[in-house]
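Students often ask why inverse folding is considered easier than folding. One informal answer: many sequences map to the same fold, so there is more than one right answer. In these notes we will look at a single instance of the problem. The structure comes first.
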């Protein structure tokens, strides 16, 4: 029998998970505001990651100094491979938002769980069931419908924005990084913990971006205006720090599966904010596609949870920071 205290804990857990998804959902609108301030697409991810990682380091210094301790294998996997995926995510997702719109980029990002399901058999030995394949098809079709269902006025921007095609490629590359990080986390998180994984992949991403961007002729220039700094700080404090802490708080109270399902509110929040604040609307087809993405991903998480409810729930990570 569930006691009032247990019910309260679970309610708090669901609120934390919903809060994490809602905060992640602000990434697209805040980034779009940065474009209007003249911030370079390639530099936004670097600065939000730098500020966010500084916040994570301060938190670890005060409360969890063991986060800084890692062996060579962990450093290579989390800081190296994980950092490379974070660096890819930070640049690619910005191109996705700028080219495909907030809702389109979010829908494309949420094809990542589908990618994990499709590659789980060769990499993790997990069975690709007819249900998993069917959900994958639903999510993929939904993502395409969301991108094609974009409507509303053009995004106000002080910089040249990429085309829809470039945006789709960026959104899919962000999903690839998300999927790769998820697969990597299934090995690293049980051995090193979620917070250590989060910190070292973020730090690795900063180092990689600091080297690659100048070599590519896109040195990360700081935000050009005071408002630009405000939006960047909000991206760092929200998407890098607060959302992940809320996600982990949810996992501790309601386990991994319901937390992941609740957090799929992210693309819906992003689409609503884009409509209300940026005049980026969706047609009926676009909204239907977005609901197909969220529903397909949530159903997949629920199915995984039902299959493993007799097993010990592993620690989970959110998504690339």
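Output (designed amino acids):
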């Amino acid at each position: 029998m569930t006691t009032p205290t247990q019910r309260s804990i679970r309610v708090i857990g669901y609120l934390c998970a919903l809060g994490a998804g809602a905060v992640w959902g602000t990434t697209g609108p805040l980034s779009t505001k940065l474009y209007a301030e003249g911030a370079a697409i390639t530099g936004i991810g670097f600065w939000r990651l730098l500020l966010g990682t500084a916040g994570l380091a301060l938190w670890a210094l005060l409360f969890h100094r063991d986060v800084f301790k890692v062996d060579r294998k962990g450093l290579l996997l989390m800081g190296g491979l994980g950092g490379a995926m974070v660096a890819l995510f930070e640049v690619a997702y910005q191109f996705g938002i700028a080219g495909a719109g907030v809702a389109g980029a979010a829908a494309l990002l949420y094809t990542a769980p589908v990618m994990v399901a499709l590659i789980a058999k060769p990499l993790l030995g997990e069975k690709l069931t007819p249900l998993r394949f069917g959900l994958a098809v639903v999510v993929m079709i939904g993502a395409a419908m969301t991108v094609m269902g974009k409507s509303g006025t053009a995004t106000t921007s002080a910089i040249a924005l990429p085309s829809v095609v470039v945006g789709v490629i960026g959104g899919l590359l962000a999903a690839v990084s998300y999927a790769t990080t998820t697969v990597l986390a299934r090995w690293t998180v049980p051995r090193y913990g979620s917070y250590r994984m989060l910190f070292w992949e973020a730090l690795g991403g900063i180092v990689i971006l600091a080297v690659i961007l100048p070599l590519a002729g896109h040195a990360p220039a700081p935000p050009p205006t005071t408002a630009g700094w405000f939006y960047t700080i909000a991206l760092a404090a929200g998407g890098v720090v607060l959302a992940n802490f809320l996600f982990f708080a949810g996992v501790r109270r309601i386990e991994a599966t319901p937390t992941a399902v609740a957090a799929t509110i992210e693309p819906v929040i992003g689409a609503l904010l884009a409509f209300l604040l940026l005049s980026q609307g969706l047609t009926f087809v676009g909204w239907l596609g977005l609901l197909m993405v969220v529903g397909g991903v949530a159903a997949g998480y629920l199915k995984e949870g039902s299959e493993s409810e007799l097993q010990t729930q592993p620690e989970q990570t959110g998504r690339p920071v």
